[in-house]
Amino acid sequence: MQWLDKLSGYFKNFSTYSTMMDFGDCVEVLIIAVLLYYILRWMKTTRAWALLKGLLVICAFLLLAYFFHMKTILWMAQNVLSFAVMALIVVLQPELRKALEELGKKSLLTAIIPFDAGHQEEELFSGRTISEIVKAAVEMAKVRTGALIVIEQKVSLKDYERTGIEVDGIVSSQLLINIFEHNTPLHDGAVIIRGKRVTSATCYLPLSDNLGLSKELGTRHRAGVGISEVTDSLTIIVSEETGKISLAYEGRLDRNLDTEGLRGRMQEILNGNAESIAKNKRIWKGRSRSKK
Fold first, then answer.
1. For residue 125, which phi and psi values (nearest 5 degrees)?
2. For 123, which DSSP code?
3. DSSP secondary structure, 173-236, as one string
């Protein structure tokens, strides 16, 4: 077939190029590989990761169109490409700004060699952290104290932390109850938790546009569902009007949870994700040792 002949021709050309490579070319390839690694590592913690997977599907489709000579589709792709690049820059503007800010704060050595890998492992969710959050939610539900608690997972919530006030305290039921107590400076807005620490309070969250949500739900519930739609965070909502506890995850809202229901749902989500992260780290470490 003709497309197979083209593919074999590309491999032949690549083999001729490989014989002409010198030391400078090898260094250049190494630098590009390192840059691609850190770009992909950064994208995995942002909304750009889902966008990248969609772009890969489109690229695969265009590759098939090229091999099978679908000229109309290729013509459309060429004319849309310039507009698509501009659209990507606009859509990813907050993530690009954040990446440049973090690059300016880090030194070259710490950016290449992550010394805090062990610290990240310690921040996986513990049973005590879950118990403290559940205890606080139940106690606030009894007295109908409204609360909005967002728990960060793989996707960073630092953009939303900037809208609030820094707390940086160990998670405890007393701290959470005091934050959401009526007429206190920090009670309005959301609390963001990373690992075992409360990072920020009074944070603003995006509201969900889901028309399927019940009309009786207020701004607090729509904010909890909204943040779960754009990130992989887990959000606990305590209703001020009814005293009911709800949990939002992946755009879905579980309502009227009791103590055991809330604890079981949190353990299912948080511990499951923590185990997958730990498993990936063990695989990476095993590959590193095998290379050595």
1. -70, 135
2. T
3. HHHHHHHHSTT-TT-SSEEEEETTEEEEEEE--PPP--TTS-TT--HHHHHHHHHHHHSS-EEE
The domain locations on the chain are 2-115, 121-279
Please, are residues 223 and 190 in contact by the beta-carbon 8 Å criterion? yes
CB contact set of 86 (below 8 Å; sequence gap of 6+): none
In angstroms, the CA 250 to CA 271 distance is 16
Which residues lie closer than 8 Å to 224 by C-beta, 6 or more apart? 148, 150, 190, 205, 235, 236, 237, 246, 248, 253
DSSP 267: I
Residues of the chain with pLDDT under 50: 108-111, 115-123, 277-281, 283-284, 287-288, 290-292
Relative to beta strand 190-194, strand 147-151 is parallel
Fold assignment, 121-279:
YojJ-like (1 (3.40.1700)
**Beta pairing, strands 245-249 & 165-170:** unpaired
pLDDT tens, 3-14?
566 656 666 665
192 within 8 A of 164, measured Cβ to Cβ: yes
Quote the pTM value: 0.60
Distance between CA 287 and CA 97 in Å, rounded?
Answer: 33
